[in-house]
Amino acid sequence: MLDVNKIRxxxxxxxxxxxxxxxxxxxNGATTLKPTVVVDTLKEIYSKRNSNVHRGIxxxxxxxxxxxxxxxxxxxxxINAGSDREIIFTSGTxxxxxxxxxxxxxxxxKEGDEILISAMEHHSNIVPWQILAKRKSAIxxxxxxxxxxxxxxxxxxxxxxxxxxxxxxxxVSNALGTINPVKEIIQKAHKENIPVLLDGAQAIPHGxxxxxxxxxxxxxxxGHKVYGPNGIGVLxxxxxxxxxxxxxxxxxxMVEKVSFEKTIYAxxxxxxxAGTANYPGAVGLAKALDYIDTLGKDRITAYEKELLNYAxxxxxxxxxxxxxxxxxxxxxIVSFLLEGIHQEDTGMILDKMGxxxxxxxxxxxxxxTRFGIDGTVRASLVFYNTIEEIDRLYEGLIKLKQMFK
Length: 405
Ligand code: PLP
Hints:
Elements lengths: L3 H6 L7 E2 L2 E2 L1 E2 L10 H14 L9 H21 L7 E4 L2 H16 L5 E5 L8 H10 L2 E5 L9 H7 L4 E7 L11 H10 L4 E4 L11 H4 L3 E5 L10 E5 L1 H6 L10 E4 L4 E3 L13 H17 L1 H20 L4 E4 L8 E6 L4 H10 L2 E2 L1 E3 L4 H7 L4 E5 L6 H18 L1
Parallel strand pairs: 3-15, 5-6, 5-7, 7-8, 8-9
Antiparallel strand pairs: 1-2, 4-10, 9-10, 11-12, 13-14, 14-17, 16-17
The structure holds pyridoxal-5'-phosphate.
């Protein structure tokens, strides 16, 4: 069992009043709060240990380089990648996807080829592929979802063929909470020789990622959604793929030798890390992953499941409340609407009660279009949330309904 009261003390942001009420933070899908250990690490680096990596031969630089490379190993272990060469630090999920859409696209996508995504993608996993499709006169195809917010697997079979160059899909939907059957999807794609990129932005904080077991070709996520710092992210790629791809950005650190006639690129993973690295971010991220492992991934998963089940049954009991995203396999996200009350009004009034929820399209506009709505209210729950907080949401919604009667 998780000691949630003790855990909450690790997150000072939880201990504050908003409009005279104790804060309930249910916007974890947008960004998670940071444990003290992460904040302290950043403070220590900036105040004492700061020095650029991979450059200096002096003490501080060598030490920071060591910490940065240790952070890479930490990430490798956390997602069970086979080699440090497969772990590239980026600024986040968006940058990681753009790296692949640009480099893979440059090398392997040509006119008339197809790029496959799903109907439940975040804009970050749509727009980069649209840009590529436009640049290469390729075609973007979309795997549909059913009314529960689950991928229609039979349609996936129909959509994959010889001309499909890559399949990019989220592991978990940020708008609906669906955990996609990505292992099965990857197996199907690989049978057709189609590489798969998984957008793991929402899966990684829930501790369910093993890239070797999944056998994905690329896996991407952001530090700030997994209790780590902002501005740091990860691109995992199978070595055999990363070797074949050209660099995305040019600059310092990604080169072995430079002359005006010819440049030799650095080896993996540095080929994809141009410019000064975000080493404080990487080390802070490693601390966040340590923190999660100390709590225990299995315990986190079990507790968050409990929160999801409780929130789903409590909210379902409210007359006129509809939940969007009722997949059999879900993480702890509850997206909903109250009949006759606009999602923004719901969000604004709950905010005045001290409850922080996300409203709008969640950067997944096509999901909203699919359900014929303009947005939802989203509660995304994690291990520092409590049953009592869900009760406060329930009571807040009941009060809100009375106000709108
Ligand atoms: N993909 C998914 C599923 C997300 O939920 C998000 C952020 O909400 C992103 C991609 C983009 O992440 P970032 O803005 O950190 O690059």
